[in-house]
Amino acid sequence: MPKIFVNYRTGDAEITAGLVQRELSRVFGDDNVFFASKSIGSGHRFPQELLTAARRCKVLLAVIGPKWLEARSDDGRPALEEPEDWTRREILEAHETGAVILPLLVGESARLRGEDLPPELGLLAECQYLRLKHRDTTADLSRLIDDLTRLVPDALPAPRVPQGGATPVEEPRTEPVDGRPARMRAEVIKHRQRGGIGNLNGDLGTFVSEPQGPVHTGSGHLYQAHEQHLGPRISGDRQAVNYVADNHGTVSQQSEREAPRAAEER
Question: Mean pLDDT for each consecutive 10-residue tract of the chain (266 residues)?
């Protein structure tokens, strides 16, 4: 059953109530937010569905506009005094079953006072309320969502888990590195490899782990030159820097006097 019940009066801030329930449904999910015109399907028994949802909710959000207290029944009496008034019944049903009653005052609606309410609804004047201002709707809705999250933390939908029960993974990182796009997906690295050359899943490509001597990942001859003829050191074990050329020939060592030629062939 829905954990959040949106209570409102037809003819008083009902459009605002609809906008509020839509935002709450977006955050908490349709199944966790009850709104009569949305949640009761065609052909379903209206009174039974309405009262059942009110009795089983954990929070009833009473949307109160400027005409909320002014509503009258057919005989001219205040609607809130009528036992069969639906706005009244929903609030009382939720309260009797232990739900939190949260008044939401719309716009400049006056704060409720006990003397303006029927005795049965005096509880509304004692409940801490929130206000939804038309000029600051985003901030007010954000606060409402934060409060509801604390009141009913289990109303938030569970994180989506990939098929097969695997742990959710992070999205690919696309931050630029040295002016070039990075295409690393760290979440797919699931094991360690000591020594040798291998491939990582995703877009990282070839890696070299713990090199011990000449390392070749290109497609030509591999030459080993002395340090004084080469650029920055890249060896992992204080070995000489390796030049990569075409990997279709043999692997040989180059003496110090051959180093310039190797640099030219790179």
Answer: 93 93 95 85 76 95 95 91 94 96 94 94 94 89 95 78 52 52 43 48 48 54 47 48 46 44 43
Q: How far is 108 from 132, CA to CA, in rounded Å?
A: 9
CA 18, chain centre distance (Å): 22
Q: Cα(116)–Cα(199) distance, rounded to whole angstroms?
A: 74
Single out the residue of 133, 131, 128, 82 nearest to residue 101, CA to CA. 128
In the chain, the DSSP E strands lie at 4-7, 33-34, 59-64, 100-106, 130-132, 176-177, 180-181, 197-200, 205-208, 222-224, 242-244
DSSP-derived letter for residue 198 is E
Residue 1's pLDDT is 81
- Give yes or no for a contact between 33 and 24, defined as CB atoms under 8 angstroms apart: yes
Among 74, 89, 83, which residue's Cα sits nearest to residue 36?
89
